[in-house]
């Protein structure tokens, strides 16, 4: 239990989603082991992985990889925390997957988590409440928690999330729960996104209007009409549409859902040279998690690379290290 001045002791731990290093992994400048080693070097001992992206042989991981994975965990002093699952409901051109077919694919992803030693599987927001209910008994038998990602523009009061919460209450928090993505707390429009639009030729006046509307909590859903009326083009339309995908919710809204919150995706777009996140106020978020008694992992998820790779060298390791330094400070950790 780590004490923080003026706050109760806590058991929050730090982790990293290997998705954060997607740029380097795609370019083959970092291997999966390199990603694990980088996280461990930052004191982030919880490892989150996307099997579809990083596990050879997916959806049937090779025995060789599974053995090496567990060897890495021992060698670097890290712990498998979560795997990420996706539900491709449109595999067939003429129909959606049936409920039974969807449940079978989720059970397969649970099996992968078990083989990797991860106690949590992240369910993307397109998982239906019916699918979650159907696989809950299997997840419980396997000792795995299936956590629904609450990802912007969804929020805790969204009807889809409320339907899921009804299922979670019936199944129990030890089986089904929530994985809030901190992208639901975007206070300022991400600077890396608006600057990319400018480099792509967007009109500065329209970019400024979009950013100011978002930052002032204005009507972002009216922005596409305004862009149209003011003669904007595809780049401005894309930026206006993106503004509707960011949301700002007060961090204290996390408190009501803490019993079902098993993991936090610590989304970030830009860690500044000063060591703060430009858009997401972790200085306000972390104290709420401490006060709420959260006991899971804060897992870094860097998504700024795609917005700067056209003009700048992407160094995901530096960005993640900066966030981990910020989280360690906010959690009261000492060197």
Question: What's the short version?
Answer:
The protein is an alpha/beta fold and 335 residues long.
Topology, element by element:
Layout lengths: L1 E3 L2 E4 L2 E5 L4 H5 L5 H10 L4 E4 L1 H4 L8 H14 L2 E7 L13 H18 L3 E4 L5 H14 L2 E6 L8 H13 L4 E5 L10 H9 L4 H12 L7 H7 L4 H10 L20 E5 L13 H10 L5 E6 L2 H4 L7 H15 L5
Helix pairs in contact: 2-4, 5-6, 6-7, 9-11, 10-11
Structure report:
The protein is an alpha/beta fold. It has 14 helices and ten strands. The protein has an eight-stranded parallel beta sheet. Helix 5 (99-116) packs parallel to helix 6 (129-142) and helix 9 (204-215) runs parallel beside helix 11 (234-243). The longest helix is centred in the N-terminal third of the chain and has 18 residues, at 99-116. It is globular, with a radius of gyration of 20 Å. The relative contact order is 0.15. The model has no long low-confidence stretch (mean pLDDT 97).
